Amino acid sequence: MAPRMERFVSPGKGNGLRSTARIKRGELVYSAEPLASCVSNRLARDVCHRCFTRRETLLRCSQCKTARYCNATCQKQAWSSHKRECKCLQNLLPRIPTDSVRLAARLIFALLKTSKGSSEELYTLEEHESHLNSMSEQKEQGLSQLASMLEMYLQPEIPDLAQEMTSALPSSCQEPLSLIAKVTCNCFTISDAELQEIGVGLYPSLSLLNHDCRPNCVMVFEGTKLQLRAVRDINPEEELTISYIETLSLTEDRQSQLEDQYHFTCHCQRCDSQDKDGLMLSGEEATWRLLKEALPRLEGQKADSDWQALLQSCSHLLSTVGGDVPDENLYKLRMTDMALDASIHLGHWEEALRYGEQTLPGYRQYFPDPHPVHGVQLMRVGKLQHYLEHDEDALDTFKQAFHIMKLTHGDDHPLTTDLLMKMEECRAEMDQQSSSSH
Ligand SMILES: [Zn+2]
Ligand SMILES: [Zn+2]
Ligand SMILES: [Zn+2]
């Protein structure tokens, strides 16, 4: 496939990527394996460290007792990138370094292995922003600690990290501190089909993509392979954009998150027009404020997987205060979503379906373009409808999900295939019912 994108200087934003030809909505723009990647510590026991598949039982590396694999094949394939890491992990046990330190170490091993100049990337690590100059002192201190951790972690394999980096790496990557800064600013979160975060990875060319709160491209993963797809028709030489953050939030909150994490002020059309802010805050403020103020506590319960308490709080608030707040209100939508999560975890299917259906009008409003988050939400609701034998509703919901996912995930993605199968099941069951009722 001819390259469909090229780097250019985007006015006011520095480097960027633009299309080289007309791109239709739903088309694959770019696909890449990471230069380095690693499973999040949080899921280190649940996900294969090679293919990033979630499994009930995984084989454990007998040496570091940290890495886990689907089977001997995955383990064997992982060995060349795990070998040196394995020694470092063993040395530090029972401690395990943070995700960004493990990713930086994997990056260093990968860079030391590849010969210089062999990269086909549009953008090299050397050019990556570290933002060290614009960083607060506190943030820089945090990074310094990570850099010392990195040196300590790599000790068994690379006793003199600074020396080794100076002789083998390009000039702007020789300082452990600037390397770790680059890694934290440029790494991508790798998520699974249900959009749960499972790891982090570096995809150098795609670090050129600039942000827009209503982007024309989205990223979806298949294992660690990143796929960039257009969600709107794109003209030749038009800038390609993604959203760095969750777009379902208020302009003010998106802006402060972008400034804090990515060090820039967003001037996109959505931000300039404060698009949808009014709708997100619909209803009486005195009423929805009660929902807003309860959210941090509920998020804590969710983080602790305290589903019983979470469902109790959500359903209490939603049935008392929530009745007077429109479903589109952002805080009510977030709370309804948490109630959905909690009911699914507790196996309260009828209740889950009620909450799930209640979120859909909001999702439709807030995702005018095809978006993986919207597709996955429809699929969750469709599965509940299907399980509860509301076959006609389920088929309709799955169809809506398919219209989105054939564009965001493509026809060949396992999740799209899974969805088509679910639609077939619904049709077969509906046929069976109509024939048995005659
Ligand atoms: Zn595997
Ligand atoms: Zn190991
Ligand atoms: Zn914006």
UniProtKB/TrEMBL annotation:
Domain named MYND-type is located at: 48-86
What are the record keywords, sorted?
Metal-binding, Methyltransferase, S-adenosyl-L-methionine, Transferase, Zinc, Zinc-finger
- Give the GO cellular component terms, alphabetically: nucleus
- Provide the reaction this enzyme catalyses: L-lysyl(4)-[histone H3] + 3 S-adenosyl-L-methionine = N(6),N(6),N(6)-trimethyl-L-lysyl(4)-[histone H3] + 3 S-adenosyl-L-homocysteine + 3 H(+)
Record EC number: 2.1.1.354
GO biological process per UniProt: methylation
The UniProt entry, under InterPro entries, shows:
H3K4_H4K5_MeTrfase, SET_dom, SET_dom_sf, TPR-like_helical_dom_sf, Znf_MYND
Give a yes or no for keyword Transferase in this entry: yes
Q: Tell me one GO molecular function of this protein.
A: zinc ion binding
Q: In which domain of life is the source organism classified?
A: Eukaryota
Task: Outline the extent of the SET domain.
Answer: 3-245
Pfam families noted in UniProt: SET, zf-MYND
- Cited Gene3D superfamilies: 1.10.220.160, 1.25.40.970, 6.10.140.2220, SET domain, Tetratricopeptide repeat domain
- Do the record's keywords include Transferase? yes
| SUPFAM superfamilies on file | SET domain, TPR-like
Q: Which PANTHER family match?
A: HISTONE-LYSINE N-METHYLTRANSFERASE SMYD (PTHR12197), HISTONE-LYSINE N-METHYLTRANSFERASE SMYD3 (PTHR12197:SF288)
- In its UniProt entry, what is this protein called? [histone H3]-lysine(4) N-trimethyltransferase
Lineage of the source organism?
Answer: Eukaryota, Metazoa, Chordata, Craniata, Vertebrata
